[in-house]
Design brief:
Layout (H helix, E strand, L loop, with lengths): L1 H20 L4 H24 L8 H11 L4 H13 L15 H6 L2 H8 L3 H14 L1
Helix pairs in contact: 1-2, 2-3
Amino acid sequence: MSYVVRDVAMVFGLAAAAAYLNNWLVWPLYWFAQGTMLWDLFVLGHDCGHGSFSNEMNSVVGDLLHSSILVPYHGWRISHKTHHQNHGHVENDESWHPLTEKMYKSLDTVTRILKFTLPFPMLAYPFYLASCLG
């Protein structure tokens, strides 16, 4: 629990420092540092999803942490468990959908660029969030 308290305090501390300094040179540093800390909150919520945080508090802490970074905890927890149960299975894994070499070579150039470079990967997360709502 001390990691959660420390990291949440760090998130608020970084936000307060950036707001206090309010300088265009500081904001990119803030974005990088805060992004790192928010990733840390995801990792702590991830550990809750694996049941390794605390038997009594996994769901509560995981839900609070993931909600703070706009990740639907229970939807993520369920899909992540399914992912681990089928890890590496080409047909059953929900998180990993590789293309066969034959399928990849059959894609036109535009599809290859959009599917395997920016900006398409950046759009995947909003679609993931939307899929957890329904």
